[in-house]
TrEMBL record:
InterPro entries: RNaseH-like_sf, YprB_RNase_H-like_dom. The lineage of its organism: Bacteria, Pseudomonadati, Myxococcota, Myxococcia, Myxococcales. This is YprB ribonuclease H-like domain-containing protein. It holds the Pfam family RNase_H_2. SUPFAM superfamilies: Ribonuclease H-like. Residues 90-240 form the YprB ribonuclease H-like domain.
Length: 298
């Protein structure tokens, strides 16, 4: 995989020097020349340092020490870690109430165990524990928006920190896939079903407000479906992004099988159908109906 072909964790080695090593035939850590064998790969002094850092990375990978690898590999190259830790990956996305002090309303998670939905006023308090169970987080703009909103809401002491966080907004941009998440999805032929096309973040705010104001469970179901797509589509995008990154670097490594959303659509439907009204929702409906009767009598 790409991680074992990474040399940018070595001090003084950036993208160009790494490509030079590849051009020399030093394609993996195993190819780096041992001490006293042949001409230096970088320089006599730097080769000793290189061997030391290759050994550190090799040991960290053998221990599945994701945090140790993150400390070695530059953040722009963290996408290379994904295949070795895919089973520990968490894809997530949030919606908020749209107010100045953003409050998370719906948060969807997708991991190897399946889909999980957390809703404000229902089960949101369980979110930190669920996210703490996974060491590698994958999001789109999550380092700038989603994670900070959740950290502000739950507090620094309660909200977990992952060992690694791959923000696909920046990785896809570097690979020439510009635009927002939905634009990239469309360009890759992984667009959403007709009823979700054109739905945006402000629509998500309005759907939440409709649910809160009237106990409108249909609005909540639509919002949850929209948010679930934001989460599990990231799995497909991560696979595509990793493969494209390997292509751009012209590396002969196995490409990842691209996740197909058809594998989870049954679970999406099941989750949405299970979202019935709570006792509080029923109270809201009764209150609004009571007000309507009062208004009609005026």
């Amino acid at each position: 995989m790409m991680l074992q072909r990474t040399f940018q964790h070595i001090p003084g080695v950036g993208p160009y020097r790494e490509k030079d090593l590849w051009a020399q035939g030093i394609r993996t850590w195993d190819d780096f020349p041992a001490a006293g064998t042949g001409a230096p790969a970088i320089s006599k002094k730097s080769d000793g340092v290189a061997r030391e850092y290759i050994a550190k990375a090799r040991e960290a990978l053998a221990r599945k020490d994701l945090r140790g690898l993150v400390e070695l590999v530059p953040s722009r190259e963290h996408w290379r870690l994904y295949p070795d830790f895919a089973e520990d990956a968490l894809f997530f996305d949030i919606e908020t109430d749209g107010r100045e002090q953003q409050v998370p309303t719906v948060v969807s998670l997708f991991d190897s165990a399946g889909l999980h939905v957390f809703i404000h006023g229902r089960n949101m308090d369980a979110l930190p524990e669920a996210m703490a169970a996974r060491r590698l987080w994958v999001s789109f703009n999550g380092t700038c928006f989603d994670a900070p909103v959740l950290r502000d809401y739950f507090g620094e002491s309660r909200f977990p920190k992952p060992d690694a966080h791959i923000d696909l907004r920046f990785v896809t941009k570097r690979l020439g896939m510009g635009g927002g998440l939905k634009e990239i999805e469309d360009s890759l032929g992984m667009g959403r079903p007709p009823h979700l096309r054109g739905v945006n973040g402000w629509d998500a705010v309005l759907l939440w407000r409709a649910y809160k104001a009237r106990g409108d469970v249909e609005a909540l179901r639509f919002l949850v479906e929209y948010n679930l797509y934001d989460a599990f589509q990231l799995r497909t995008l991560m696979d595509v992004t990793y493969n494209k990154g390997a292509d751009e670097l012209n590396q002969d490594v196995p490409r990842l099988p691209v996740f197909h959303r058809g594998d989870v659509l049954y679970d999406v439907s099941k989750l949405i159908l299970e979202l019935g009204p709570t006792e509080r929702d029923m109270e809201t409906i009764a209150r609004v109906r009571s007000q309507d009767r009062d208004l009609r009598e005026l």
